[in-house]
Amino acid sequence: MKKSGISISILRRTILFFALALLHFSFVFAQEKKDIQIHFENESVAVEKGSTFTNFLVIENKSSEEISIQNIIPEEQYPGLLFYPKNNLTLGAGQSKNLPVKLIANVDFMKLRSNEITFKVSYTTPTVTGTESASFFVKKDENKNIAIYTATYENFINPGTPDSSMLLIVENQGYSKRTVRIDLQSIPDGLEMMPRQQTVSLEGLEKQTVEIKIAVRKQNTLYPEFNINATATDLLDNKIVGSNTLYLVILSHNRQIARGNEAVSGSNFAEISYNENSSGFDYLQLRGNTAFRINENLKARVNVGADYYLDGRYNLYDTWLEVERKKTVLRLGNVNSNDYDYPVFGRGGKVSTQLGKNNQIEVLALENNYNLYGTYFQQTKGSTMAGAKYSFGNSQSFNGKVSYIFDHDPRFNVDTQVANGTTSFLINDKYILRTEVGLSQEKGLSNKDENTGALMGANYEGKIGKWDIQSINSFATKSYAGIKRGSFISNQRIGFQFSNSQRAFIQYQDSQVDPEFLSFQNAPIQPGNTSNLRYYFNSTEALGLGYQFSLKKWNFLLAPKVEKQKTASFYASQELFSYRLETSISTVLGSHGLNWTAEYSYSKANNREEWFNSLKTTLSYRYKSFSLNGTAQWNATSVFDLNSYYNAADRNFANYNLYASYNFQMMNNHLSGSFSAGASYSELYKNLNSNVSGNLEYKISPSWSSTGYFNFSGYKSTADYVTSGSYYQFRVGIKKYFTATTSLGNHKVTLQLFEDKNFNGLLETGESVLANEIVKLDNFVALTDKNGKVVFQNVPEGTYTLKVNESAGARLMMDPVIMVNSNINRKIGLVKNIRIKGKLTEIRQAYDVVETDVTGILVYAKSEDGKIETAVVNQKNEFEFFLKEGKYDLYIENDKYSYTKPIQTIKVTKDGYSETVIFEYKKKDTTIKVKKF
To answer: Are 692 and 677 in contact (CB under 8 A)?
Structure first.
């Protein structure tokens, strides 16, 4: 009877809980029968920019008397409204009229924040005067992406310049106002970008120019290319709405073309260090990796990790050799692989080859042991594995893989086989369907017991209008030997977007893990004896709602949930039933970021009568490279906390944690590193834990660095029997970054640039070399040194085009096409062009205090032969050209402002052009009215 009472109580609370949650979003209304019915013929109309469309306003007289329509007016002044009926009309009893409303979807119409078009209709009858409204919705065909790009594909940074920057253009390609967060990531790591993250608010179709300050943290003169991954995240729903990879080159005078001797990670280094810790097991450590070309068709990569202990023992780990020829790669040493639905790592070999354009096959054989070889740990024989994998399809519409692994484990005396297959389909570019199947077989070699298992799964993602649906489902039998052994997962989520700043979702989760294993093979199976069996069970079932909304730069989440958890083993079992409410508030204010989350629970355990309250909350703050996080928990929030919660009934269940970290570069980027510190206190266990750690690297020269690391941890008990302890570890080392020479089969191209004043192509007395000039060999960029020299190494045979600082106007006095089939050392004469300076100046009316931004506007210079040069206005409103002698038309094609003289003609002579070209502009449609007293 007691059990039944609890179930009824839980049911009542659940119904009440969801009734209160849904009451906020629901309302009930009643509608009386009216004499007149007014509606639009089509409830929604799909439109494209520039198109015209018509929807009919339907007015029906449902009464037995005559009705007079006196006025039909739009609720607001809709841009693009071409026609609507304005004359009075009369409807006899039972009559109806279809009145046309015509609009054009111009830019202003597409930028309307509301998609609802509403008209009000006033009418009179012999007895009643009233007003009714009717509306329809517009479905806009718009690109909702955020574009991120630079004005030019090639972006150069001179590391010798103290303040370098790059102008980033962020464009809202949709018509609705958007607030997005721009995140930047350097690949490889080595750029310091300020700000690395910032928030931008954009009106419909608006572009904004953002300046990014850039400094080089880790200079690599041989491979100075960086990719900057820029992503735009909509702060309304935290979805990525735009991304781009921006190409950036750090200029140097020694430049590699084909990468020969490089590391897989791009670091190409060797480091030896001394490690000491409080346990007394001090050791020397060697780490390194490199890559090199064996011949024209064969290249190799090597990675080494080794520890040598002062008592003479050693370990060799994370050590491998990889050889690549065309589309085939062979790896020997420490090997790992994924996508087998089984843990695969150890020492052995792996070979993979590409078949055709999209297919690949992989075969491996290894022994499951972390060390490649060593004497520090006893070398026990691990599992021996053999497997194969075949991947197929393409990354767009269809792809998948099938895999097989065989594992013989001599320690457990078990043979295991697992076969797994997955596929992914993209349907109509909107819906993604993923499937997975698996089969396994286990056999105990001593007790002769066997298990056969299977896995199947299907996942779906898609969006239908304003609805987005996600369904994740998988089931593995108890004896399936893959990673998902004995699991059942059903996760269903349906979301609806009310507007750009509001969305809601409902989610159901049912997951459990109930695996079954073979018996331990070191003892025979005995009926009723469970000592050689393994058993555990975990499950979670939850139903929740969520409502997300944004107010300016602030994002909010409210998510109530009902959850039931269970865990069990041979020794104990626990159940927890909870009503939960999760909240989240976050914002980004310039370089500052703030995020607060909290989860309140009202819960009951299965073996306790009373209900209890619990709360877990986290507050995070970020400023540039500094972050601070704090967490507090009161009472049990999960079923795994219950053992501690009830075993310490005389203590408060409260845990506190504080953590901070800081990354830095200083001393002209010669010193870099990171520090972190944290402390946690548990009232439940009466102890305090603390930890401080740091990493440092000081660049002694371009190819040598000193490194350091430290870690200090402390423990102190505040219980009756006070205990305390500490642990420390530090490391000091020296690191060498390798440079590379020209590889076999490639060539070295050395060029020296000078100003050829007499046009004879020879460097003569009185003619100066050109330092700090940008030189391009095809798309590879370098910078001349103080002697005017630049070196391109590892240049494969072929034909290349030489270009010299087009933006600064230097002209070659030779054929720019260079044939490379041997090493080249050549002097290059140039003629400098004439610099033309210009500026944009605003003409303001009196009392006009609104600032304008002309950064990024393009200015054109057209020569008499029709050739057009381009310049970009910088943040000081200035621009510059480097032009030959001749007559030019300078003009601006930009309709954001009006220009008093949009086209200006100048004449450039060999003596130069000393004047500054001024383009005066003013705002459009701006009138300042002054009231006189």
So the answer is: yes
